Automatic annotation (TrEMBL):
Residues 15-218 form the Tetrapyrrole methylase domain. The lineage of its organism: Bacteria, Pseudomonadati, Pseudomonadota, Betaproteobacteria, Burkholderiales. It comes from the Bacteria. The keyword S-adenosyl-L-methionine applies. InterPro entries: 4pyrrol_Mease (IPR000878), 4pyrrol_Methylase_sf (IPR035996), 4pyrrole_Mease_sub1 (IPR014777), 4pyrrole_Mease_sub2 (IPR014776), CobA/CysG_C (IPR006366), Siro_Cobalamin_biosynth (IPR050161), Uropor_MeTrfase_CS (IPR003043). This is uroporphyrinogen-III C-methyltransferase.
């Protein structure tokens, strides 16, 4: 990964992490990079308020939202390449961190194979923000020494090693896990994880509409249904999830402040 400091030439393409949604969770580096971009390809999980940092840029909306129609990945890559070859300063703005289930690595390699340099600018990944938003420390001395970010959804239908994950004792943060929630529950129970293991399900983390539901491994399917859990959401599974505050929304928090 190359990191370009202020004053150095702009790389042809930047993959910028837009963070989980709250515009205040953008990095200063992302804000500067957005201000320098001429074309910005915007992912559909990006909060539109963030685009206030690139009023000068041409915006191209691309997206790969699970379950919805989306712009095919190879089309997006070709578009980046085309703009870069035209000499434009291209930014690809992605939700969370570009390299956490964001295809940042793939896109960087693909561009490199086509002779185009690409800088990656980190963003706060939604799993971190989601946990913090509802009061969960992802690691906690004496409770959890490790965290695993995992997705239950893969294009090739390969599955994570649930047995190893269950045995690891690490806090699990499951991305893209709403549709596959019943299967994840089944796999972890079959792998021997305790049915009473605390689970927090956090929707729209860091946004005003954020809400979460606290449950257990055994009950999470019924509770998610009753709660009406919708994507984008992450699941935090492990003893630290017991630290989640009782369910409330960000609006509730503001009202009680
Ligand atoms: N690169 C992103 C993840 C992209 S995969 C990141 O680092 O956060 C898309 C998944 O991210 C969603 O299915 C959901 O699991 C999670 N996600 C993204 N934004 C979210 C948000 N604001 N709240 C909860 N989950 C979110």
């Amino acid at each position: 990964m190359t990191h370009v400091k202020p004053g150095q030439p702009h790389p042809p393409v930047r993959l910028i992490g837009a963070g989980p949604g709250d515009p205040e969770l953008l990095t200063l580096k992302a804000v500067r990079a957005l201000g320098e971009a001429e074309v910005v390809l915007v992912d559909d999980l990006v909060n539109p308020e963030i685009l206030a940092h690139c009023p000068q840029a041409r915006l191209v909306r691309v997206g790969k939202r699970g379950g919805c129609r989306s712009t095919p990945q190879d089309f997006i890559q070709r578009l980046m390449l085309r703009y870069a070859r035209q000499g434009r300063r291209v930014a690809r703005l992605k939700g969370g961190d570009p390299c956490v289930f964001g295809r940042g690595g793939e896109e960087q390699q693909w561009l490199a194979r086509h002779g185009v340099a690409c800088e990656i600018i980190n963003g706060i990944t939604s799993g971190l923000a989601a946990a913090t938003d509802c009061g969960i420390p992802l690691t906690l001395r004496g409770v959890a020494r490790a965290v695993t970010l995992v997705t239950a959804h893969t294009e090739d239908d390969s599955a994570p090693d649930w047995k190893a994950l269950a045995a690891s004792g690490a806090t699990l943060v499951v991305y893209m896990g709403v549709a596959t929630l019943p299967a994840t529950r089944g796999h972890l129970l079959a792998a021997g994880m305790a049915p009473a293991t605390p689970v927090a399900m956090i929707e729209r983390a860091s946004l005003p509409a954020q809400r979460h539901c606290v449950s257990s491994l055994a009950a999470m399917e019924d509770d998610a249904r009753a709660f009406g859990l919708r994507s984008p959401a992450v699941l935090v599974i492990g003893d630290v999830a017991a630290w989640a505050r009782a369910q409330e929304t960000r609006a509730d928090l503001r009202a009680s402040a």
